[in-house]
Specification:
By secondary structure, the chain is of the alpha/beta class. The chain has helices at residues 2-12, 21-27, 35-59, 70-82, 94-100, 103-116, 122-140, 161-165, 211-214, 227-233, 252-264, 281-293, 356-359, 376-381, 392-395, 400-418, 439-446, 449-454, 466-470, 498-503, 544-548; strands at 150-154, 173-174, 188-191, 198-201, 218-220, 242-245, 274-278, 300-304, 321-326, 425-430, 457-458, 505-507, 518-524. A hairpin with a 6-residue loop joins strand 3 and strand 4 (198-201).
Length: 559
Amino acid sequence: MSLYYDAVSVLTAPSSTGGSFKSRIYSSRNLKSSPAQIYALVIEASKWDILLKEVIEAAGILKHEPKLTPLLALLLVHDHLLAKNGIAANANHPLRQAIERHKTRLNGEFVKARVRRGCASIPDLKAAVLREKQAAQGAVGTSSTAVYPRWVRINNLRTTMEEQLQSTFKSYTRVNSLAELGEKDEAKLYVDPHVPDLVAVAPGVDFTSSPAYKNGQIILQDKASCFPAYLLLGDSEDWSGDLLDGCAAPGNKTTHMASLLAKHAAGRDVTRHIVSMDASKVRSKTLQKMVSAAGADNIVTVLQGQDFLALDPTEERFANVTGLLLDPSCSGSGIVGRDDVPKLALPAAASTPTSKSQGKKRKRRHDDEEETQPGNAAAATSTSASATDENEIASATLDRDRLTKLSNLQARIVEHALSFPAATRVTYSTCSIHLIENEAVVSRVLASDVARSRGWRIMRREEQPRGMKAWPHRGVRTESRYGDVKGDGEATPVDLSDEELEACLRCWADDEEGLGGFFVAGFVRDEGSVDCPSTKEPASQETDEDTEASDGEWEGFSD
C-alpha cells in the first residue's frame, strides 16, 4: 500500500529542488516503493483522470469513506478498474477495503462512462479520453507553438537504425517535420536531421510494451540530452582512448556514448572503455541498471557513489582517458517535460460529515498508515494534484546565491576534467536557461589557469560534428531570449568572443524544435599539449541538494 502513499507524496511535494518530475522520484530517499512503479502509476492515472473523476463522483464514495482523499481515491480506483492485478495491497488493508466496498457501484459507473462515449473496448475508451483531454486543453487556449514529441534513440549496442525501420517502425509513415506528427498516437515517424539514430513520434505513442523497448533496442531519450555524447564523439570512427562520464546518473548519456562507440567500431577489432560515476549511491544503482539494460556492461565500468571531484586525474587507471562528458547539478530551469508533474483532474472532496464516529478514539492498526503519510492534507483540499505548474521551475525566482553556488560548482567540475593528463576533448552541459550556469561557466573555465596552461580552447562551430554544426541556436550574451527571464543574467560577465559564443549550443522551450531549455559546449586541445602533470587538489563535488537538482533528461527505458 506504500505505493499509493508514495505517489501522493511525490505529487504534492514542492518542486523547489529542481530537476524533472521523474528525476525527483528516482533520486528521492524517502520512498518505500520502486521509483519505476510510482512513476508508472502516476503517468497512467494521468491518462484517465477525467474519466476516473467522473466515476468517483458518480459513485459517491468519498462521502462514505473518510480515509480517502480525492488524490488517493483517484490512484486506487485507477488500479481497481484498469490495472491488470488490481490494487497493490493486501485484501484486508483498510484502503483497499474502502474501495472494494463500493466495487459494484464503481464498476457500474465505469461501464456507464464507456457506453456514453460509445466505446466497445478499453483501448477505444482510452483514445476517447485522450481526445477529451486534448479538446479541454484547446478550449483553455495555449498560445505556445511548441511541439513536444516522444524522442526515441536507437541503441547500436543491440540493433541498428535500418533494423528498427524494418521492424518497430515498419508500419510508420515518414514525415518531414515535427508538426506533422500531431498530438495523438498516429503511426508517423520523423527522422532527426541533427543527431544520428534518433527519431521522433507523436507524444501519444506508447512503446512500453514493445519488444524493442523491453530488449533495450530503443531508448526513450530527449533530443537535447543526446547532444553532449554526439558532440564529444562526433562522426569519426578513429576515436582513440577511453571515456569518462563524471556526473552520469541516471545513465542515458553514458549509454549513448556506448552506442556511438559500438556504431563506430562495427566490423572492426576495436575496444574502447567508459568509466561512469555518480556521487549518489542511490542514483548509482539506477545508473548500473541502465547500463545493463542497454547491453553496455562489457564496455562501461560504473563507480558507484564516486565523487568526480575526489578523483585523482593522475591515477594510472585514468591514464588513457581522452574524453570526458560532464552534465553536473544545475537549476533545472530549462525543464518543461511533457509529463513533468502531471496535473490531475481530481474528484470533488466530500464535505466533512458530522457523526458520532468522528469523536471516537480509533485504535491504530499496524498497516493503517494514512494519518502519518505526507501529502494527505494537501491532497484533501487540492483541485489539482500538481504541486507546480508545468513551467514553474523555469519561471520561479531562484535566488542569486543559489545560482552562484551552482555556477561555482560547475566551473570547478569542468576545470577538474581539464586536468586529466591525456584528455583532449570535454563536453559540458546543463538543462538550465540561466546565463550564469552556461556561457558564464564557459567564460570562467577558458580563463582558468588549468585551461591556459594546458592549451584548452572551445570547440569551434566548424569543428563540431555535422549535426551539431547545423544546429541553428547558439550562445547568447544576455538572458533576453524570452525577454523576461530572471536571474540577473544582464549582470553576469561573459567574456567570450563572437566565435566562442557561436561555438556554444542552446535549446529553448516553446519553439518549433520540440525541446526544453538546454546548453552544451565542447572544449578541445591539441594532442601536442597532452601529458602535462596535474596540479589540482581533489575537492568535494556536490551536496545532496545539488544532486537532486540535476539531470533533467528523459530517464531510461520508460518516460
